[in-house]
Amino acid sequence: MEIVDYLRIARRRLWVLLGVPLAAALAVGLFIGLSPQRYTATGYVAAPALVGGAASQQYTGTQAASQFVAAFKAAVTSPRVLDQVAADTGVATGALRDGLAVAQVGASSQLTLTYTAAQRATVEPVLTATARRALDFLFSSQVNIATEQVQAASADVTSATAAIADWEKANKVSQPDKLYQATLTEIANLRQQKLSMEAVGNSRAVAAATSALDAAQKRLDALGPKLPDYQSLLAQRDAATSALSQARQGLQGPGPRPRPRIRPRWRAWATSAPSPGYGHWPPPSRPRPPPGSCWRSCSSSCSNCCPGAPSPRPPPGSPRCSRERRERASEPGDTVSERVGAAASGRSRSAGFAGWRRKTSPSAPHERANPEIR
C-alpha cells in the first residue's frame, strides 16, 4: 500500500482519530470539574529546648532530631490524639488520618504538619488542635512533674520565710545580722572619737564616748549568740528560693510552639513593592519642593516651563525646555562652576541644582561637547 491508500483509509476513520482524544479530554475535564476543591494548611513545630546535646534536655545525642521527629509522627497518628482532635473539631477520625502528614525540614528538629480537607473551615482548627494534642501527649507528664516541683519549691520558700518571722518574733529583734554589722561600725566610730577627744584633752566628751561604747558593746554581746540560728534560717530560705527559680525556669522555658499559616499567594505578591530607580524625581532621600517652586530639569527661571504652581513635567527634548536651555547656555558667564558656586553660597539652591541638571543633561548636542561637563 502506498501513502495515498493510508490517507484514504484514515479519512474514512476520521471520527475515530478525533473522537478518542476528545473523549479523553472530556473525561479528564469532567473528573476535574466534578472533584471537590481541597484546601491545605501547614503548621511549623520547633522544639529547641528539647533537642540538643545537654543532658537535661529530652532528646540528646547525634540522633536527637530523628528521635523527636519519629516520636511526633507516632503521636500525631496515635488513636488517643486522633480521638481528642475529633472531639475538639467534629471531624471524623478516618478523615483526620487520611489528611494529616508530618515531614521533617532537612536534618533539623523542625517539623511541618500538613492537613488537607475539602472543607476550608475545618483546616486550620484541625491543624492547631492536632499540634497541641500531640505535644501534650508527648510532654504533658513532664509538665506535670515540673509543676509539682514548682509547687514544692514554693512551699519550701513559704515555710522558710515563716520560720524567720517566728524567730524574729520570739527574740524580739528584726534582721539581727544587719544590726550586728551596724553596731560594729558604730563601735569603730566611737573609738575614733574617743581617741580624738583624749588628744585634745576634752574629758567630758571622753566620758560620753566611753558610756556609748559600753552600751554598744552590750548590744553586740546580746546579738552575737543569736546570729548562728538566724543565719541558718537565711541559708534555708536562699536555697529554697534558688530551687524555686530553677523549677520555674524549667517550667516556663521555651517549648515547642505550633504556628499554623494559611497565606494566599496574591497577598505575598501585594506585599512586595518596586524599589525606586533612576529617572525618579525628586530622589527618595530629598523631600519634594513646595507648590510654586520649579523642580524640573530646566532652569528655575524658565518662564514657559515654570509659570507658577508645578504642572506635569514636559517630556525630554520638548521645544519649550530645549529653547530655554539654549538661551541659558548662550548667556555670558553662565557656567557650571558659577552655578555650583552660587548653590554653595546659598543664593539659590533650586536654581543651582536645576542648572547643574540642565548642564549635565545629554539632550542637547552643544552640551555634550562642552569641556566643562567632563
Automatic annotation (TrEMBL):
Record flagged with keyword DNA repair: no
Bias (Low complexity) ranges: 338-355
Residue ranges of domain Polysaccharide chain length determinant N-terminal in the record: 3-88
Keywords of the record: Cell membrane, Membrane, Transmembrane, Transmembrane helix
Compositionally skewed regions (Pro residues) per UniProt: 281-292, 309-318
Membrane topology recorded in Swiss-Prot or TrEMBL: Multi-pass membrane protein
Localization: Cell membrane
GO cellular component, one term: plasma membrane
Region Disordered, residue ranges: 241-293, 306-374
Coiled coil (UniProt feature): none
Transmembrane segments: 14-34
Basic and acidic residues bias (residue ranges): 321-331, 365-374
Position of the signal peptide: none
Entry-linked InterPro entries: Bact_polysacc_biosynth/exp (IPR050445), LPS_length_determ_N (IPR003856)
Entry similarity comment: Belongs to the CpsC/CapA family.
Protein name stated in the entry: Polysaccharide chain length determinant N-terminal domain-containing protein
